[in-house]
Amino acid sequence: MTKFHGREYRDAMGQFCTGVVIVTGVSGAVMAGFAAQSFVSLSLDPPLVAVCPGKASTSWPKVRDSGHFCVNVLGDDQRRISDVFAQRGKVADIGWRPAVSGSPILDGVLAYVDCALAAEHDAGDHTIAVGRVLDIDILDGARAPLLFFRGGYGHFAATAAVAGGG
After folding, report:
1. How far apart are CA 71 and CA 129, in angstroms?
2. pTM greater than 0.90 (yes/no)
3. Which end of the chain is less congested by CB atoms within 10 angstroms, N or C?
């Protein structure tokens, strides 16, 4: 039996800082997309990622129908873009170019991960969408990422470089 309420759950989960991405696809000739925090590298071999759109999303069905999606990693100066894509059915007025899959790579993002939809799994009020990575690139390794923490946006300031990455 659950001993906590929805707000308590959200507050506790808010203690974990996440990056902010925009998941894009093409529906007809029109860009569709949504802001997401639930994005993760899933496997190196084969290269897989996962993103978790809400079941109430009006954008995910449009993206899903194309069979492909692109995960765009936002920089800390792109909060406005996140705010627009976070609204149901809205897309920001931003330039883009097609990735290998045809999904939009947004102008000014730090990096992108272009994917073919490999699987979907039911997960409560969300769906776990697994993408097989087709292409990736770091477009701007100098800017800091946009982060989400305790219900608000923030940014990362490195304190020291870590040799060897780990």
Report:
1. 12
2. no
3. N
